[in-house]
Automatic annotation (TrEMBL):
This is MarR family transcriptional regulator. One of its GO terms (molecular function) is DNA-binding transcription factor activity. SUPFAM superfamilies: Winged helix' DNA-binding domain. It comes from Janthinobacterium violaceinigrum.
Amino acid sequence: MNYTSKRLDNQDAPQTTERILYFIKTKGPVSTATLAKTLDMTGEAARQQVQKLVAAGLIEGRQEAQAGAGRPRQNWVLTEAGNARFPDTHAQLTIKLIGSVRQLFGEAGLDKLITQREEESRSAYALACSAPDLPTRLQQLATVRDEEGYMARVEADGKDWLLIEDHCPICAAARTCQGFCRSELQLFQEVVGPGATIVREQHLLTNAMRCIYRISPLP
């Protein structure tokens, strides 16, 4: 599947299979009924599409306990193969390069490489996220991260904001060397500024569905 940053309500969105995978990626876990309603399909058509994706090994069921009596509800999430349909920037080559750097220059050399990447990101974010007000800066940050392949968006949550990243284009590299994630909070805090705090509430590397950061204005 070719990655697209177009949202699901865009009429130029990909074919049904890809739209389902994209919706589960960004909104999952989701039920068959939710898929049918969102994609304007009949329940039977949605079930057929789901079964095709299950048979292809792209999605799998996850049971959600119902409140009170009743059978658990079946929701759908992407499998590892389903997630692989979204870009992981040159994953295997990146992993090999990380291994080579580690072997040739040790952890200190790898640390220098990561630090250089941090500085490049810091400069880019400072330039792109320069609005005077926090909500606009957060939208600018989400735009930058979206362009980098993180499928990022900002949502209001009461007095807070959530920076949500449904995908990690360097996930394979980050699993090999978690130093790639170490500076994100610091970089984001610099964008947020001294008037708010940011914490990571969900993390892909701890088996969450996505990475979510909560930004809370200070009193």
